[in-house]
Amino acid sequence: MSTQASLPHLLQRLHRGAAGWLQSWWRLTQFAVLMFSVALTPASYGRERRPVLARHLVSDTVPNLAWYGVLSALVSLVLIRIVVVTSQSYGLSRYALEMVVRVLVLELIPLTAAAFVALRTTLPAGLEFAQGRSAGRQVSMLELHREFFPRVAAGVFAVWMLAAVSCVLTLILTYLSLYGFTPWALAGYTRVVGQVFNPAVTMILALKIVFFSFAVGLIPMASSFYFGENYRNKVSHGLSDMVRLFAVMLLIEVASLMGNYY
């Protein structure tokens, strides 16, 4: 009897969980459409709103760019050395450059750049902004343009900048690690890199960075847009945002791997 009585309760919990999960994704989709419509509105870039947007772009990008640039350079040097030594030990030195470019530039740097911006900026900012809102208060169009859109745009722009600068820095460090300070190997280096970055791979890399940036910018702020309840609920929403964000990033990474290697 206890088993039969607990079965409807279990089904009810599963139904509530599935309904809440679908509702959260539906609200995220609505918020994304709303942000894209605001981004396409010329009033979002008016004279009175440009300083706020510029301040968020600079404050969310420059500190992250400095820290991530140093960390990515150190990690890149270590990984480059590991790949070069390993390839030499197996007699595969001619494939070392291609392996470094594929592992670092195509896969690790975009993923770590998005994760760095999310953990350092967008997730804490989304939770802090949600805690400052009154419970159940509707968001006005002025707040949408002055508060939400600059934060979303700053998160998107920060991922673009970190990924672009780190990719260029890694390519430079790879050349210096393999050939040293000589210009004579530049022709062969650019030929191998150009063979890796064919049009399909380049398009997949660009799309991956773009989708990473949208996920990092939109998901944390969507929670603070819809959920204006008590502090404990906001903390739980912050944790669910982290899980949802990294789940989306994992799906994007898997899709890019399938596009590159299948």
Automatic annotation (TrEMBL):
Coiled coil: none annotated. InterPro entries: Permease_MalE (IPR030802). GO terms for cellular component: ATP-binding cassette (ABC) transporter complex. Pfam families: MlaE. The keyword Acetylation does not apply. This is ABC transporter permease. Keywords: Membrane, Transmembrane, Transmembrane helix. It comes from Duganella lactea. The chain crosses the membrane at residues 65-84, 104-127, 148-176, 196-221, 242-261.
